[in-house]
From TrEMBL:
This is Leucine rich repeat containing 20. Coiled coil: none annotated. Keywords: Leucine-rich repeat, Repeat. PANTHER family: PTHR48051, RAS SUPPRESSOR PROTEIN 1. Pfam families: LRR_8. One of its GO terms (cellular component) is cytoplasm. The lineage of its organism: Eukaryota, Metazoa, Chordata, Craniata, Vertebrata.
Length: 114
């Protein structure tokens, strides 16, 4: 990944990924990442280190918990898509009022189970 430093977009949709390398944070120009339809059970922490990241698509994974503290440090983030993830109701109530970006979630009860 470190050889792709000027990379503005990264599409890794549908690759059965469950974690990301820490080096992802060294992609200083990365603005958009598509991680939809993989196997993430947790929010990929290396994303919080990518300083220019504006849009994250994690639709269709297995994420139930959302790290509010990590998201709060992402000053460039404008959109986080967590549709079709089993995000628990408590997280929905806590996160939505605290995040300064568009948070896309599936309506409660409409999340497919894996």
């Amino acid at each position: 990944l470190t050889h792709f430093v000027p990379l503005p977009e990264l599409n890794l949709e549908g690759n059965l990924l469950h974690r990301l390398p820490q080096e992802l944070g060294s992609l200083l120009h990365l603005r958009t990442i598509n991680l939809a339809r993989n196997k993430f059970r947790h929010f990929p922490e290396p994303l919080a280190a990518a300083p220019a990241l504006e849009s994250i698509n994690l639709e269709g994974n297995e994420i139930a918990e959302v790290p509010t503290e990590a998201l709060a440090t992402m000053s460039s983030l404008r959109s986080l898509n967590l549709r079709a993830n089993p995000v628990c109701p408590a997280v929905r109530l806590l996160v939505q009022p605290l995040v300064p970006f568009e948070l896309l979630l599936s309506p409660e009860g409409n999340v497919p189970t894996a």
